[in-house]
Amino acid sequence: MFKNIKTLSPFALILLFISFTMSVSQSMMTTAYPLLMKAFNVETSTVQWLTTGFMIAMTLVMPLSPWLLNNIKLKPLLNGIVLSFLVGTAIAMLTPNFTGIIIGRFIQGMAVGALFPTFQSVIMENTPKNKRGTAMGVVGLVMGSALAVGPIISGVILQLVSWRLLFAIFLVALLGLIVIGQKYIENSHQLHYSKFDWLSAGLLVGLAGILYAISNFQKMGFNLAWWLVLVISLILLASFAIRQSHLSEPFLDLRVFKYSGFLPGLLLTGISYSGLIIATVLMPLFYQNVFQFSPLVSGLLMIPAALFLSNLNPKAGNLLNKIGLRKLVYIGMSMMILGYLVLALLGSKSWFVVIIGAMLLEGGNAFIMMPAITAANNALPEKLVSHGTALITTVRQVMGSISVVIVTLLVTSYNTHLEIGTSLQSASAWLIIIPIIGFLLALRLPKKVHKTK
């Protein structure tokens, strides 16, 4: 793992550490929900907007990243992204009311949404094709590990000090990184200036509407308001797609779908990410609700799976050019199927079994997500890499959101007539369908390993 990190340039390392720091913020707030509900006297449906608002803001900005990358020099772009995140963090840390935290989280989400595809595009563009698997394996280490350790870090901090320190730590760490990194940041991306299409940007509100409908399905159900939000959002997104096909300089170039191998890689990335997200949802439920561990202990018990994921990501990246994506997906999906089986059959019997299940779920992710991103972008010409990355990161977030709703509905429906341990096991049994779909999707990938030069 560390050998692969050492091969990266100082610029790539700065991007790596900044991305890790900002990525952790994505999953850190769930542990703080009970404290914030008590401190500000808000309900569960309200406090969840700290994550939902962050997710919507992040997904809204992701499709804008190709335009940002092509029209703003990389150094001011990266500085602007980090500055936005720092402003959002400061607002959330210092605010006297709950609305201020939501505003701060929304700004943070916009910054992370701009960073993720930009970060991955720059790494892809500055790495030879035959080394992209290794480089993106390290990126996977950052993305996956940060998502997994977010609840761990927040659990430890909240056990010892105030929730405001959660934001203070990110403020200090990120400020230090961007100051140190100024001399290493390179304007390595070639600019291709184009006019900002305000209509296309406005139509992306449909994406926010779809995420809102997904996030609020459990509360709203199939009522008229839910259907109106969903249908209007889909119409807006369809209008966005049609408009892109008629622009000489599309905001988001959808021609990427014409290249063989891109669509399967995109879908596999989303399915793999769903497994990682589901693991971070299920594990605390098992640890805290079944085995009655404290949030701190629950967070610490998530460390083995996070470490396992971190160690496997670079190894999976190295294997991509040796055995090909298809075999990697078979390995990863098999691990995820086995992980769900372990939880479905033995999840409530022992907390150690839950750790094994989590390691299989998160470890399986390492063999799929970043190798699939690499293979999908390798199928594209260089000028479309930023567009491909933006689409992959956006679809990945939407599929992750859908998976959270699915697991929540499953657990809730079973919990009405079964005790919590049995309901979690039953939900895990149904979730096996997700990696099975991924396994079948891998059949569409080429058997032959295409060596890149």
Automatic annotation (TrEMBL):
Residue spans crossing the bilayer: 47-69, 76-95, 101-123, 135-157, 163-184, 196-218, 224-242, 262-287, 293-312, 328-346, 352-376, 397-415, 427-445
Pfam families (UniProt xref): MFS_1 (PF07690)
UniProt-listed InterPro entries: MFS, MFS_dom, MFS_trans_sf
Keyword Transport set for record: yes
Membrane topology per record: Multi-pass membrane protein
SUPFAM superfamilies assigned: MFS general substrate transporter
The keyword DNA-binding belongs to this UniProt entry's keyword annotation: no
Swiss-Prot/TrEMBL keywords: Membrane, Transmembrane, Transmembrane helix, Transport
Gene3D superfamilies: MFS general substrate transporter like domains, Multidrug resistance protein D
Top-rank taxon: Bacteria
Compartments where located: Cell membrane
Major facilitator superfamily (MFS) profile domain ranges (all copies): 11-450
PANTHER family: MAJOR FACILITATOR SUPERFAMILY MULTIDRUG TRANSPORTER MFSC
Name of protein: MFS transporter
Species in which this protein is naturally found: Holzapfeliella saturejae
